[in-house]
Amino acid sequence: MIIETPPWLEDELPRLGVTTKPYHLMVGNPSAWHHCEGVVCHKRSAPQPPRSLVAINDDIRTSSPELLLYDLASYTDFDLIDLVLVGYELCGTYVLDQSWDGMTNTDAPMTSAAKINRCLCRLVGMPGVARARAALSLVHDGSNSPMETILCMLFTLPRKLGGYGLGPVSLNHKMATATGPRWVDVAFTAAALGLEYKGAQAHSIERTKRDDRRQNKLVGSGMTIINVWYEDLVTPHLFEQLVADIFHAMGKRLRIRSASFSVRRALLMQKLMPAITRFGSLV
Q1: Of 280, 170, 192, nearest to 229 (Cα)?
Q2: 224-277 per-position pLDDT tens digit
Q3: What burial class does residue 192 get, using C-beta atoms within 10 Å of its C-beta: 0-12 exposed, 13-18 middle, 19+ buried?
Q4: Packing angle of the helix pair 261-279, 80-90 (nearest 10 deg)
Q5: Cα 22 to the chain's mean position, in Å?
Q6: What is the pLDDT of residues 135-170, one digit of tens each?
């Protein structure tokens, strides 16, 4: 953030929702802030890309969604998977927050992978750009929930990161049916295969009946649907069966030539498990 008047620091930032320290501030003269406790100052030497700062009020600017991925990639606090998760959120229709279920759905995404890429192209040579681009290359637009993001990552990330390298993929893919459009959570369009995530809240009889009828419409439109339950992701033998079912439905043979793949997959699962545990029971 850019702060013009230091006296506002302790009052203004918490009011705007910045509740944790240290505060990371982009300032014109970092030396003037050295006396401030709980403040880390940053001075960017390169010109800001156009429209990369958003006005909060007359005195404060914050990074745009397009610039945020670069800002986070500039520090070692976030590894590649962290950055990919942030990228999916920025390009999806959900925001992680302090609400009762930890997220809020939005009418439209904050940005897109293409817009973030245009911003990064104007920052060539700056520290963190290569990491931001590497993360962005693994992000797909249109996720509607953290679990859709996780499901997509598990099967589309490259094998060197513990994923299965499948694609092309379309999130919340629109399908025309006899009764109107329907949307598939994660669609592998070339294989006409869709993955639908089912949280614990979807276990009710009425909800199951409604989802089954919806699935019938999709199948009738040429899309094979595989339902994915929370247990399929957290139980090792069920996850192995899910992987086998997906590869079979896509007409692919599952060949794992790297002896270290199981370790990389376990590391990816370990990284994603906190989010799976937190959001997996939700639909």
Answers
A1: 280
A2: 999 999 999 999 999 999 999 999 999 999 988 888 999 999 999 999 999 999
A3: middle
A4: 40
A5: 24
A6: 999 999 999 999 999 999 999 999 999 999 999 999
Q: Quick check: bond before 22 cis, omega within 30?
A: yes
Cα distances (Å, whole numbers) of residue 233 to 29, 110, 140, 197, 272: 49, 28, 21, 10, 10
Q: Are 52 and 63 in contact (CB under 8 A)?
A: yes
The single residue listed with the structure tokens 């086998």 is 244
Residue 260 Cα distances to 118, 160, 171, 265, angstroms: 36, 9, 29, 9
Other beta carbons less than 10 A from residue 137's beta carbon: 12
Residue (of 180, 165, 178) closest to 264 by Cα position? 165
Diameter over CA atoms, the chain: 67
In the block, tokens 């693994």 appear at 138
Domain range annotation of the chain: 65-140, 143-283
Are 33 and 58 contacting, i.e. CB atoms less than 8 angstroms apart? no
Exposed, middle or buried, 79 (CB in 10 Å: 0-12/13-18/19+)? exposed
